[in-house]
């Protein structure tokens, strides 16, 4: 699974950071950092984060990578 955060919409509410801290991190003034290639064991957490984002800034792609990259 891949994820993209629309940083023009992200308000830094950090729900995603609490739900999937291995994928989303807030770094002070830099704002939100994230891993676009979501590890399989984080996929469910990222889905929950996308659902919880108050501004729907987290976009998900279900493109499957065979070798985990
Ligand atoms: S939950 Fe949404 S608004 Fe909040 S930091 Fe994550 S992407 Fe940004």
Could you explain the architecture of this structure?
With 69 residues, the protein is an alpha+beta fold. It has a single domain (2-61), classed as Alpha-Beta Plaits. Helices cover 22% and strands 23% of the residues. The chain has 2 helices and 4 strands. The protein has helices at 15-19, 43-52, and strands at residues 2-5, 24-27, 31-34, 58-61. A two-stranded antiparallel ribbon has the order 1-4. Strands 2-3 form a two-stranded antiparallel sheet. A hairpin with a 3-residue loop joins strand 2 and strand 3 (31-34). The protein is globular, with a radius of gyration of 11 Å. Bound molecules: iron/sulfur cluster. Iron/sulfur cluster binds next to helix 1.
Features of the shown structure:
69 residues, alpha+beta, 23% strand, Alpha-Beta Plaits, binds iron/sulfur cluster, single chain, two-stranded antiparallel ribbon, globular
Q: Order of helices and strands, N to C? A: EHEEHE
Mean pLDDT: 91
Task: Please describe the biggest sheet, giving its number of strands, its sense, and whether it closes into a barrel.
Answer: 2 strands, antiparallel
Please state the oligomeric state of the protein chains shown: single chain
CATH topology-level name: Alpha-Beta Plaits
| Arrangement of strands in the largest sheet | 1-4
Which term fits the overall shape?
globular
Overall number of domains: 1
Instruction: Label the CATH architecture.
Output: 2-Layer Sandwich
Q: Report helical residue fraction.
A: 10-25%
Low-confidence stretches: none
% residues in beta strands: 15-25%
Radius of gyration: 11 Å
CATH class: Alpha Beta
Helical run tally: 2
What are the bound molecules? iron/sulfur cluster
Distance between the termini: 10 Å
Overall SS class:
alpha+beta
């Amino acid at each position: 699974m891949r994820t993209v955060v629309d940083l023009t919409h992200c308000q830094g509410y950090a729900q995603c950071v609490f739900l999937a801290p291995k994928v989303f991190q807030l770094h002070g003034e830099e704002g939100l950092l994230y891993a676009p290639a979501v590890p399989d064991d984080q996929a469910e957490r990222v889905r929950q984060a996308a659902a919880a984002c108050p501004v729907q800034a987290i976009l998900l792609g279900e493109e499957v990578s065979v070798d985990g990259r």
